[in-house]
Amino acid sequence: MHMRTVRAWVSAVLLVAGTAHGQQQAAPSQPQNPLDVIPEKMPFDVAYGAPIPLARAQAVIAAAQAEATKRGWKLNIVVTDSGGNLVAFVRMDGAQLASIAISEHKARVAVMFRRETKAYENAVQSGNLYTLTLDGMIASRGGIPLVEGGKIVGAIGCSGGAGSQDEVVAKAGAAALGTPAPK
């Protein structure tokens, strides 16, 4: 027998033995992956409402901008409507240019997926990289749905600082509507 044939035969035997050994192990009784847990209710099941009007969007931006100014942070701040379309935008003096598109992206993801973009940041940080496969995803905090009368009317997106800074300013803007984001 040639040495190559012997090596191939030994490899095949080890492969079969390893497979058989793996089949003998008992299957776990509970899911090992938290993504395999099936929730009783639909998460983030908040209805979409009428689009936020310009005056309300400007009030949200004014509150967010006041918070950023108070802290000395230069940010881009966007409000989109309930369909993810741009309603209002401000680029504070000196805010980085790349964050113009990022702030709008955060707002769009928050409204389209009906949850704060921080949820996706947390998922990625905990190893659930599947979220990055979702169409149009951004996994960075600073995008928050705007809820009024129990319905999503739009979203705010802030970018230009650290994610935690973007989030603080977005929350200040969302608070201008007086209702919390969906949980």
Could you walk me through the main structural features you see in this protein, from its secondary elements to its overall organization?
- It is a single chain.
- The protein has five helices and four strands, in the order ααββααββα.
- The chain has helices spanning 3-24, 54-71, 98-112, 118-125, 163-175, and strands at residues 76-81, 86-91, 143-148, 151-159.
- A four-stranded antiparallel beta sheet has the order 2-1-4-3.
- The chain is globular.
- The termini are far apart.
- The model is unreliable at 1-24 (pLDDT under 50).
Can you summarize this structure?
Helix content is 42%, strand content 15%. The chain is of the alpha+beta class and 183 residues long. The chain has a domain at 54-175: Beta-Lactamase, CATH 3.30.450.150.
Q: What would the principal axes of the Cα set say about the shape? A: globular
- The level-1 CATH class of the domain at 54-175: Alpha Beta
Tell how many strands the DSSP assignment holds.
4
Helix share, percent = 40-55%
The pLDDT mean sits at 84
Order of helices and strands: HHEEHHEEH
Distance between the termini: 67 Å
**What is the C-alpha radius of gyration, as a whole number of Å?**
24 Å
- The CATH homologous superfamily of the domain at 54-175 is termed Haem-degrading domain
Which fold name fills CATH's third level, the topology of the domain at 54-175? Beta-Lactamase
Q: What CATH architecture of the domain at 54-175 would you give?
A: 2-Layer Sandwich
Q: Classify the secondary structure makeup into a structural class.
A: alpha+beta
